[in-house]
Amino acid sequence: MKSNVVVLILSLFLVSTVSAREPVNAQPVEKRGGIVQLGLGWGFMSHGASLDSALAQAQASGSRFTIYSEAIFGWAIHSQVYLVGGLSGFTDRVTVKSRYMQLNTLLISGGFRYYPLTTGFLLGADFGMAAMALNSDMLSFSVTGKPGFGFKGTFAYDFAPAPAASGIIVGGSITMSQIEGRWTQGVGLFAGWAWK
């Protein structure tokens, strides 16, 4: 009698184990492929004490705006991870009457994007070459510094309904770059579209 009960319990256990696994095999998770992301938004830049002071004095007599933009492309290496590369940068422009001065900071980088869940929140980190150029209507040419290095951290929310679906993405980034011995820091808030 006891042996029959044991056999019955083992049989029920095996059946329940197999049936619990079937839905996973019957409905595989949608695989990720490539990603292309474009974003545009508002930014804040700090170029070091001396340059920040000069820009603040100019801003007091005029206006200043900073734009952040990025273009990212990559490929999934895991169900939650993309390897990416791309361009991101800030355009920091001060206008006084009819005169202007504009600082363009660029980061050419590679990194990753990590989705802790199927979609939704994502985190990213990038590292690469940084460069800066100065433009002004008082100059007949652009002043470009020697390239340096920089890194960027990204946090965002992807509104795509599925891992391989396209959708709106909103988020922010923090960038730090060293160019010719000078550290610059930037914060960007952006909205864009991600094709997947």
List keywords for this structure.
single chain, 196 residues, alpha+beta, Porin, eight-stranded antiparallel beta barrel, 2 helices, elongated, disordered N terminus
Instruction: Give the fraction of residues assigned to helices.
Output: 10-25%
Oligomer class: single chain
- CATH A-level architecture: Beta Barrel
Q: Please state roughly what percent of the residues sit in beta strands, choosing from under 5%, 5-15%, 15-25%, 25-35%, 35-45% or over 45%.
A: over 45%
Shape: elongated
Q: Using only CA atoms, what is the Rg?
A: 25 Å
* Structure annotation, total helices: 2
Strand order of the largest sheet: 1-2-3-4-5-7-8-9
Please give the CATH class: Mainly Beta
Number of strand segments: 9
Tell me about the largest β-sheet: 8 strands, antiparallel, barrel
Counted up, domains total 1
The CATH topology = Porin
Classification by helices and strands: alpha+beta
Low-confidence parts: 1-29
Sequence of secondary-structure elements: HEHEEEEEEEE
Q: What's the overall average pLDDT, rounded?
A: 84
Report the end-to-end length measured between terminal Cα atoms.
Answer: 60 Å
